[in-house]
Amino acid sequence: MKIVKTKEIKAKDVSEFADNVLQRFLDRTILHANSEIPAFFVYIQDYAWNAFLNHSINVYKEIRHEAQGIFTGHYLKDQYGEFIVATNYEEGYGVSQSAYVEMSEECLAMISEKCQIDGTLMLIWAHTHPGFGVFYSGTDYNCLRTNFYKPYQIGIVADIIRKQSKGYKVNNGNVDEFVDYILFNYESSLLSSPYGVCPIEDERKSGWGIRIVRLFRGTK
Description:
With 220 residues, the chain is of the alpha/beta class. The protein has helices spanning 20-23, 28-31, 46-63, 105-118, 138-147; strands spanning 12-13, 40-45, 68-78, 81-91, 94-97, 100-103, 121-128, 154-159, 164-171, 174-178, 181-184, 191-192.
């Protein structure tokens, strides 16, 4: 697939947004339990992640193929660095096989149009390797490097059978593993890893009344 290059997009200050979800990120030291905050971090709303899993599981049950889609949301910054908040998941369609998936240009155009209407960005390309493990193939590397290479974009591959996930990001033209992503729940303000493998580091109550967990570092 091919995405048309557009003008440079810069992170917006989170304080500029009145959105209830984004207001949760006004003080990220609470989220990170006053520990060091990475220069770039990814937060995925859990219902969007569940939508990705449900879509992927349904595809696998029906035709035993890989599935894919795109998480959309906002590219933000604060005094600690830049971060993205993915709030929606858009199902991808196109050519798929048991070990291959490609999104159609029509699907990409539709998602792009929705982003323009909503004022959001395409942030995360996610796809599955059901039963094969979490890794990037040569095709996956090329897809991320060609289409999701911007500073605010990452890729995630999930094995819905083994219940694992792994992130990747383009840095200076190279595709590197990316570990700084985590799920969040707006209603309970609880942070968690995609498959619940995140050990608890601290159960102190914060200003949000959340349980603090050690930040997810991917599945090796």
